[in-house]
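Handout, section 4.2: multi-component inputs.
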Amino acid sequence: MASTVVNEHIDHMEDDHAHEHHDNFITKYIFSTDHKTIAKQYLITGIFWAILGGGMSLVFRLQLGFPETQLEWLRPFLGKWITAAGKLDPEFYLALVTMHGTIMVFFVLTAGLSGTFSNYLIPLQIGARDMASGFMNMLSYWFFFLSSVVMFISLFIETGPASGGWVIYPPLSALPQAMSGSGLGMTLWLVSMALFIVSTLLGGINYITTIINLRTKGMSFAKLPLTIWAFFLTATIGLLSFPVLLGAALLLIFDRSFGTSFYLSDIYIAGEALPNMGGSPVLFQHLFWFLGHPEVYIVLLPALGITSEIIATNSRKPIFGYKAMIISMLGITVLSFVVWAHHMFVSGMNPFLGSIFMLLTLIIAVPSAVKVFNYLTTLWKGNIIFTPAMLFSIGLVSFFISGGLTGLFVGNSAIDIQLHDTYFIVAHFHLVMGSAAFFGMLAGVYHWFPKMFGRMMDNTLGYIHFWISFIGIYMVFFPMHYIGIAGFPRRYYSFTNFDAFSTFVDLNAFISVAAIITFGAQFLFLFNFFYSMFKGKKAPENPWNSNTLEWTTPRNPGHGNWPGEIPTVHRWPYDYSKPGAKEDFIPQHIPLSETTESNLQHEAKIVAEEKASAKA
Amino acid sequence: MIGFSIAVGVFLILAILLLIFRLHTLVDVMKKSDEKVGNGSNKTNAILLMVFLVVSFILLFWYSIKNFDLYHLPIASEHGVITDRLFWITMGITGIVFIITQILLFYFPYKYQHDSKRRALYFPENNKLEMIWTIVPAFVLTALVVYGLVVWNKVMSPAPENAEVVEILGYQFAWKVRYPGKDESLGAYDFRKIDATNDFGLDFSDRATYDDFTPRELHLPKGQPVEFRIRARDVLHSVFAPHFRLKMDAVPGMPTRFWFVPTKTTAEMRIETGNPDFNYEIACTEVCGRGHFSMRLLVVVDEPEVYEKWKSEQESWLSKNPEYLTQVPENLKELAMIKSQIETTTLN
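Output:
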């Protein structure tokens, strides 16, 4: 067992706790340093972006599903981006696709997911009064807010927001001559992302420091809930990879504004040959995907951590293979840094590199498979309660399987030749990363809402929300596999120019309808969320009979989390349905000596040793 | 007026929904149904999970079988046969895993739904099981990797020496093609020489350029290796020929290549697909701006004899644009006239 780090500044924090009542509105709700408030700020901002990013997808789904339809009625919102003929402007279509990707990947599934739950759960689950640095934590949110403001403004400028795809490959993104979105829109995108990276780093350093240094007495790494392990590794990945994106963005800024040639060479555009020589667009792709691929796991790991917790709690069963789960996550973390070039099999890079990255990519499937099998075994012979959070977690595992398996196609360079940049890829990553992480976020909100707001969300609305979303998401993304196998390229405004892509008109319309319904169902959630915040049934302290420490706090934990002493941890977080125990759960703070009837052999030994040492 | 009635309708529906919701919460409070687990909703959700599993599997198989020809494009290249075989083998393996894991994922919750009289099995770990499902996937994946490597290395191997070389140039928003002409050697180019007429930036100090020709359509001989030399002159593009299972990015400043053997002529494909208007196409698959979706290049695959005949009928670029003779160095002018056949055309 790893030794425990004693939380030295507990006493100090308790002093702070006494001053809590002096908070005014601004320090309590706006410039708050309380991790719980910051988490809620992240959540609300994430929800705002999710509505916007999701709404954008509806606009381009309308174009794809019903290319003939009149979109004149969108003119009040989109203005000149609706052409005189009542159609969506092709360049704005690309802007929508780009912004949808950027918003969803970074603002919703990175900030909204990691920001919310890392902030909320780390101190509560490891038994700390707050984050290591509350001030840095506050800065992290406000940098994110600033980044959001800049990105939001970029939506409204005359030349339109960045439009070269969320991967912003140069030269397209470097040359305003190439498309109007590469002008001011791209500058704002880069500024916004630079601020975002600052926010992520400030947050990440804090998460890591807090987890290493502020665990309560007895909370060894081997007793951490899997959520915390996931957040810990996520923050580590972010800390190592986001700076590379910053580097890539800086070089791009130099190319755009200061005449350097990092990514530009041999370019003739808009009637003139540019002076840039010797740069390489492929260099940018390497740098971008060095973040871009780990980013997939930054999005996914927190969702998997949340799911592990929820599935164990609601199966009333210990998570199967706790150690194997940690080792898998560690494996994924390390491997996530050495698979990036599988996004570039046909980028023109040396085919030998393709071989290496295919090998490494398929290795990463092993830990992912282990995780899935462990979830399945956790469900096996459980005593399963279907809370909305549990249903969303099961849905997440289903998406993770469906999308993960298609990874074996696209990770195989020979198959990827045909599938690269088609709708097969769109289907693959929307299931395995987009929908899975989104479901993780929803599951987390349903599960921890009672602790966040002291009230319960409505279950029935939750069930309806789950079923429409779950079926809807499959209806949207499953058909895309067929369209992708048929070779339909992504980011196409319309398919009418090609004989080869003239089919699947009906399927595309079907997907669009499914997308509209799925999006509509999210308003059920929004209603449930905001209504329950004020009018929901009052929550008990531990509504799900869960073991982790956050459920030992009062109904509305104040600044400092626990009114008295922080509980000491005596066991791992998954003692559910332990044979011999009175209840089907034993929280982490219950000493082994109080549960002699259910102690396992090695635990009984520890109790005996403790007694012996107490006597001596 | 219609807008107004829609708004009223939406408002009424929302009001009714809200009312139902209030009623339902009140009834819930009365019945205290939240306080016990394993109430009706638990069973309903368990059953729904099973229904979802069965219905979606039926839909999946029905659609996949019924529409096979719709999503499976006929293969028209030699390497396409082997990459497609790898695709379908992967489909078989992942398909089995998909079916088993999804069935378990939905069946377990149904089977083990909550029962207050029962306790879950305390089963925290089992190293043997963990080993099994680490090692088995590892072996399967190794097999896939090895197979994939063999195929990949074959596809990406250097083109045979007798390959027909064709240059494809991507720009906003179309493709241009260039053939080496009779000397079987593509002439040099320089992006600084590009202008409104000289799209390729042909460099006329290189004698290999004189007989290069640039037709509107891409013609290829059936059964012979063809090597695409791919380049872009403004932003990234990507050459994608779905029937040939071929894709390669076009990168400004970094020429790329892809070689393959077409196996079916356009005429043969018209018979195979039953579509008299069938044509091979090349599309762009790297987002390149406003006209990304319209970068279509028509490809014609001919019998080798027909192809040779077509090739011999093509006029060189220089003969079509004789004003560029001024860019040819003095000492090479005569050679340029002969190679590009300007002289013969003027004599005729």
